[in-house]
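Title: Comparing notes on inverse folding

I've been comparing how different people in this forum approach sequence design from structure. To keep things fair, I'm posting one structure and asking everyone to reply with a full sequence. Here's the target:
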């Protein structure tokens, strides 16, 4: 059984084919990603109109390459899975309209996928003939504690089984990846900020500065807007200026050592905020596995803090499957198909930019 997954929720146009094997494992047969990141770099963040236009140009070539890489024709495809939320409206629309059209003209079942759930399902892929992928050896087991940490999401979710989950908590303002990106911008690090901030932090002292950890009323909720502002004030204070000093001029006044110390201190505290609640949820719910998904799952600091503090080891997936991709959408699509979940109507499926879990 093979599913084509289509993902266009932000700036990556992605398509992949995943096979549900006779041994009930997931095998990644192709994974094509075309990012429009370079076009956004000069603006310091994703410009929705540019992202949508890029998806229009890229979507069909990306799907055709995904089929070709997997040595697959449409006859071999058993269904189409597509991200219908959450994400940028214009971007989602291109993926959903393409998937709807293909489902109709190729006469295939259509499955609608929640992008955030998809991030966790990237970790169910354990086999691939493709070179350059390091995948988990074992599939996650239920009950499963899922931590989703990306540019758009920070969520803790408890899965009892496939399609049976409870949202424990989530960010009430910025996502952690967004906070990484914004702090990186203040420090003048190139876009995308997250990975570059991690590199800069490597040269700094993580204990140089004390930054505040947010206290939220919800036990498993997060907030990252406070620490972001605290970094801004810290950077201003470091160069002897007050709150009125413009953030875009800070980078030219801070020394490389100051930037590295701020990056390291921010990274430590922001990641600790996430890890504290993950440990708390682990202790309360005693899951069999802990699974991390989303772009920030690639963070070395996150991996180190979790392995220091969690009593069970985590199998991480390849970094190419942590950031947005079609494979995670196809992976969840496989389970929707084999577990007889509802199909989407290809004539009416709509986008849900603010879809929650
Ligand atoms: O999952 P993703 O590709 O897109 C969303 O669904 O949002 O995540 C992108 C986010 C960005 O904020 C990026 O800065 C962050 O993940 N990111 C990282 C790292 N790699 C990507 N953050 C920290 N450390 C990294 N190594
Ligand atoms: Zn994502």
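Reply #1:
Here's my take.
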């Amino acid at each position: 059984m093979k599913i084509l997954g289509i993902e266009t929720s932000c700036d990556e146009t992605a398509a992949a084919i995943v096979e549900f094997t006779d041994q009930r494992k997931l095998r990644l047969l192709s994974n094509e990603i075309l990012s429009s990141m370079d076009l956004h770099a000069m603006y310091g963040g994703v410009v929705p109109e540019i992202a949508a236009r890029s998806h229009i140009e890229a979507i069909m070539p990306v799907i055709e390459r995904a089929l070709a890489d997997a040595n697959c024709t449409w006859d071999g495809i058993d269904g189409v899975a597509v991200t219908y939320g959450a994400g940028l409206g214009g971007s989602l629309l291109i993926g959903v309209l393409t998937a709807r059209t293909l489902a109709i003209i190729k006469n295939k079942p259509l499955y609608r996928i929640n992008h955030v759930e998809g991030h966790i399902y990237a970790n169910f892929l354990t086999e691939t003939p493709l070179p350059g992928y390091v995948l988990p050896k074992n599939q996650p087991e239920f009950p499963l504690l899922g931590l989703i940490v990306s540019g758009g999401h920070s969520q803790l979710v408890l899965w009892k089984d496939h399609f049976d989950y409870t949202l424990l908590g989530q960010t009430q303002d910025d996502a952690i990846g967004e906070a990484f990106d914004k702090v990186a911008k203040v420090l003048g690090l190139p876009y995308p900020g997250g990975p570059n901030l991690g590199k800069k932090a490597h040269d700094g002292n993580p204990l140089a500065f004390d930054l505040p950890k947010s206290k939220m009323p919800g036990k498993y909720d997060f907030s990252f807007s406070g620490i972001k502002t605290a970094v801004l004030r810290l950077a201003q204070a470091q160069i002897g200026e007050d709150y009125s000093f413009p953030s875009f001029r800070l980078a030219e006044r801070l020394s490389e050592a100051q930037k590295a110390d701020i990056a390291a201190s921010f990274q430590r505290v922001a990641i600790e905020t996430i890890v504290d609640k993950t440990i708390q949820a682990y202790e309360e719910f005693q899951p069999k596995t802990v699974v991390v998904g989303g772009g920030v799952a690639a963070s070395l600091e996150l991996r180190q803090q979790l392995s220091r503090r969690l009593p069970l080891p985590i199998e991480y997936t390849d970094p190419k499957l942590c950031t947005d991709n079609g494979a995670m959408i196809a992976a969840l699509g496989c389970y929707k198909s084999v577990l007889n979940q509802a199909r989407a109507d290809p004539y009416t499926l709509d986008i849900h930019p603010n879809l929650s879990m």
